[in-house]
Amino acid sequence: MNGNKSDKIENIIKDRYKEDFWQAYHLEEMIRTDFKSKAGQDHILTQQSMYSYYKKYLSNKKDILEIGAGTGIHLIMFDKMGFNVTGIEPDTRSTEFINQKLKHGKCINGFIEDTQINEKFDVIFLYHTLEHITKPDLLLEKCNGLLRNDGIVIIAVPDCENPDTLTKSINNTYHLWHFTQTQLKNLAIKLRYVILTCDSFARIPTNTRRIHKILRMIHMSSLSKKIYPYYPFRHTRKNDGYEIRLIISKKQSSGDVK
Q1: d(CA 73, CA 123)
Q2: What are phi and psi of 67, to 5 degrees?
Q3: Where are the domains of the chain?
Q4: Given 17, 27, 85, 117, which residue has the most CB atoms within 10 angstroms?
Q5: Three-state SS across the chain?
Q6: How far is CA 228 from each of CA 44, 215, 222, 233, rounded to the nearest angstrom?
Q7: Closest CA to 57 of 185, 196, 232, 194
Q8: pLDDT of residue 255
């Protein structure tokens, strides 16, 4: 494919994300109510589940960059927890709403490929972003350049080892890649990142979620968390995963690779 044709396709793909990508998700209502709306509750639970997974890696970390901030749930929660946050989001309305909620950080409207960033970060957060990128290897290369020496990248993508997840991903016209754990880890290894952890998570069945919702309502959340520490997801080793979670540290220099 020649350069001009490749650039034209890239621009077509980018245009899909610039306006109202999140309109169907009741974005304004979710952000305005601090995600307490019905639509926002699932986003809160997902954020809490992710945080339970990666929080032990945040020791001595302060500056966070999120690429593809989306609804803003993760960026806003990082901001509330006292982290120094910077987000990048192509949807103009989403960016506007997120900035209204951020107390200390900022969300930049645009694409990481076109954004000049002179800062270094302790953490780069990619939540269901990598599958939307035409060249994920180049994105991860750029991430490495934006990380401090002890920095990490936190990634989540659909788990396409699961046939149902794969079918949904293929049918999602916004998904350009369909990762399995092996493929995602191989990509990180190829780019000389160090894999800290990689796991697959499945959704907890609806009936079980109802039970745990009741436990939390009657102030037995500690029991619920003991049974399902990543509620409303559970760790799985089968091919029934909803998403893969990968945490990698800044890549080794060529002299470090044996």
Answers
A1: 16
A2: -100, 120
A3: 43-249
A4: 85
A5: CCHHHHHHHHHHHHHCCCCCCCHHHCHHHHHHCCCCCHHHHHHHHHHHHHHHHHHHHCCCCCEEEEECCCCCHHHHHHHHCCCEEEEEECCHHHHHHHHHHCCCCEEEECCHHHCCCCCCEEEEEEECCHHHCCCHHHHHHHHHHHEEEEEEEEEEEECCCCHHHHHHHHHCCCCCCCCCHHHHHHHHHHCCCEEEEEEEEEECCHHHHHHHHHHHHCCCHHHHHHHCCCCCEEEECCCCCCEEEEEEECCCCCCCCC
A6: 16, 12, 10, 7
A7: 196
A8: 47
C-alpha R_g of the chain: 18
CA dihedral 89, 93, 95, 98 (to 10 degrees): -130
Question: Chain-centre distance of CA 78, in angstroms?
Answer: 13
Question: What count of Cα atoms within 13 Å lies in the side-chain half-sphere of residue 9?
Answer: 10
Assigned CATH topology for domain 43-249: Rossmann fold (3.40.50)
